[in-house]
Amino acid sequence: MISGSVVALGVYFALVGAALVRSRAYGVFAAIVLAFPTFVGNALRTTELDPVVTYLQVAAVVHFGAILVRPALRGLPFRVLISIPALWFIAGTFLAFPWAIWAGLGGEPLGWWIPFAMCAFGVVQSLSARRERVDLVLDGTLVAGLQRHPSGVTRNTPNPPAGRALRIVQITDPHLGPFMSIARLRGICERAVAAEPDLVLVTGDLMTMESHDVEVVSAALEPLAALQGRVFACHGNHDHEARRVVADAYARQGISLLVDEATVVTTAIGPVQIVGADFVWRNREAHLARLVARHPRAEGALRLWLLHDPGAFRHLPEGEGDLVLSGHTHGGQVGLVSFGLAETFLSLVSSIPDHGLWARGRDRLYVHRANGHYGFPVRLGVPAEESVLYIWPRA
Question: pTM (2 decimals)?
Answer without folding.
Answer: 0.95
